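REVIEWER CHECKLIST
Item 1: Sequence provided? yes
Item 2: Single chain? yes
Item 3: Sequence as submitted:
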Amino acid sequence: MHGLLRRLFAPRWQHPDPEVRRQALQRLDPEQSEQRQALQSLSQDPDSQIRLAALLALDDCASLVDAYSHHQQDEAWFNAICQRLSGREGHTDLQQRQALIERLEEPRVLSAVALQADNLTLRLSALDRLTDENDLIHQACHNGVAAVRHQAAERIEDEEGLKRLLKEARRDRQVVRLARERLNRLRSDAQWLEAEEQQRETLLNQLEQHARAPWEPLYGGRFRHLERQWEQLTQPPSVEQEQRFHQARLNCRKTLHDHETREQARQQSIERRDEAENTREQLLEGIEETLDGLRHAAAMTVQDIDSLRAQRQLLDQRWQTLSDMHPPSDVMRQRYTLAIQDYDQCLEAWQRWCAVSADMEKALANEDHATLAAQITQCQWPDALTPPALLGRAQTVLNAENSAPSQPIEDHPTLTTYAGELDTFEHLLERGAFKSASRLHQRLKPRIEGFESASAQPLKARLKHLAARLAELRDWRGFVAGPKREQLCASIEALANDLHMAEEALDRHHLQLVKEWKSLGDAAANREQATRFRSASDRIHERLAPWRQQLSEERETNLQAREALCDQLESLLAQPAEDADPDVLRQIRDKARLQWRHYSPVPRDHSEAVGRRFGTIRQQLQALIDQRAETIASQKRGLIGQVTALRSDESQPLAQRIHLTKQLQLRWRALGRAPKGEEQTLWKTFRHECDQLFAQRDAHKNEQAARQQQQLDEMQTLIDQMDSWQPIEASEATTLENFLNQANQLEPLPRNRRSEGMQRRMSGIVRARRERLNRLAVANTVQQWHAIMPLVNAHLAADQHYLNEGIPSDVDAQAVLSDSLPACFSEAHNTRNQQRHRIAVPLSDADHAKLAESLARLRVHLSMLAVGSVRQSDEPLRLAIQVERLNEGFKQERSRDLEVTDILVALLALGPLPTSLWDAEVEELDNLLSRLARVPLP
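Item 4: Structure as written out by the authors:
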């Protein structure tokens, strides 16, 4: 009961029936507060249409936009929100609508607002919210406001979208221009990107190829050039390209670093070689100076021999070490050999002297001159060496007994000679050569002081002055050598106590200290320091004994390897191949040198002999290389002569000479290298001759290209003339034939795109001109038919009279026609007259049907030529005519005017023809002939 009362007394806008609520809603006034509340309640109604009507009545655009997300598929909601946001309905102000547009995400509504809004700003706001390219294209093509169209067109960036915009946008030229410009810009950018990518790929390939190439003088510059080109590219590379670039750059830098390392190693090797040469020079100068001092000393002593032996031992050690690292030059080896020979001669003389010295002393004491002479003869002391003091006294005693008194001393040698000796003495003092200066002073002092003449006084004064300088040098050496000796003792003791140093470094430091100790000579020498130094040196020798034993074994192994290397090279030189490649021999030489240096050191007593053996082998190998290189040089000279002969031989075709020259180039590459100084000269000469021949080929090609260009230009001119010529009469067919004859004279044309295009164009022009000439010929034939129409009518009248009366009569063409009958119709005219005499009348049904069929066949044939189609009922005749035309076409191709002439001739010869048959076909025949007589305009 309560529910019933409620339904009876409740407002109608609360009625359960939606239709009742909708009707009640239309009567609600939103200006009244109670009814406005009712409308607000209805805006939440379950029925979407009632809810939409309530929101529209309230003019609540914001709620309408908020609720639209649930009713996007409803067209009523879509139209309503579009009308409200566009400003066509409602009273929502512009700012609120613009704010609502900013909240919308539905592209359909945004597109509609952009098309229909009443304000440009609102349209542009809606357009800014659109993101789909199809919507933008639609706006650019169909929006009624130009600013919106332009704004939408500017936002289209995809190439396909621009193509579509260019195709659809016809109403706005600025949009079309904008789309075309942007499309061209996109294509230009794409081409630029493609060119950039291609250039980057080319640079990568060049850089990778450069990374694989060996070093050459321009390697670094080329690498830096490629790096600069890579950095100048603006388009960023891909990850793969970046990795390839970094890898290639690392390989290039590795090549450069390896070359720098090899160059540094080479420079260091040169420096070590120079240092070794300087050391050898110093060693040889030292022993040569010592031997020279023995020749000019006052008397030879045991200390001199011990010093000479020590120098020889040091020379052997250092010479062997240096020879293992770098072989000496021939001049240095000769000096070394001479020094060793002088040393051996001096040492052998001293050994002989030691054997007879005791007996010679007894004989000298007993004044036994015979024994003295025998002992001196047995000693065989060399004249170049200064004898010991005892031997000198013995020789003096014998000379005094056997010869007259000698001349005054100042006469032998002269004072000038001794002045020169004093100059040498002063020079030695300036150099600081204390030992040599001391020996020379000992030799000169007794001799110059023995002079008694007044002319010798300046020499004595100068000798005294130089002796004072010698004493000063001796004191200075002692002053410097004292601390130095103490430092060397401390250093060698510290070296002996260092148990962690490697044996090689220990030996090197030990030898250096020993060398420095010996270089001090007897300056500030004392027994205590000498004992300390010798004790520490002995401890180092004991420690290095196992290492030196191992080094000795290694030297033996290296010696065997060097001897094996020499054996291999000698076997190679014993049987050299006649066609041995000098480049291979050079590689063998270089590898042998590397192996020789690798097998180092070797025992000192064998190093000289095996070194001389290897040097001889290298000389022989170099001689073989030079011989083979000279043979190759002679062969290359022969190739140069052949190329020169080919260049001047005009009897052979140029293509054949070029082919032969390329074969000679292949033969040149197959040969090895000529001698170093001659290879470049031969190559430049050979290349110059080849370039001259290739220049002839290029000149011939240019000449041929010029001729072909001229030929194409003439053909182009002829085609232009043909194109501008339009035949007016059928008799102008000779002009076309003349054109074709000229074209045949210009053929064959070079095969290229231009010639192919010209040939296609000429074929089209010839085909068009032939067609026009054919149409003109057909028109002339039709005109001739029209001219003889009185004759045709006369024949028709004669045929009908013959069919009616049975009396045949002939038609006189000259009487009927004002002009002479064309030759092609004369025979048909005669045949027509004969037909009236030959065919009996009245006509039978078969004859009548045959005439009708012949006339229809001619009409169908003419229709095929004029129209190209026939009536459905005439299809059998068309097929029969086509078969007949095909059969005739196999034998001889017939032109269109000939076919028309044959049809008209057959039509004139057909008779006797009843007037009824002719009247049935004459109208269509006239139409077809009129169509054929029409000639298109040029």
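Item 5: Key structural point noted by reviewer: The radius of gyration is 63 Å.
Item 6: Recommendation: ____
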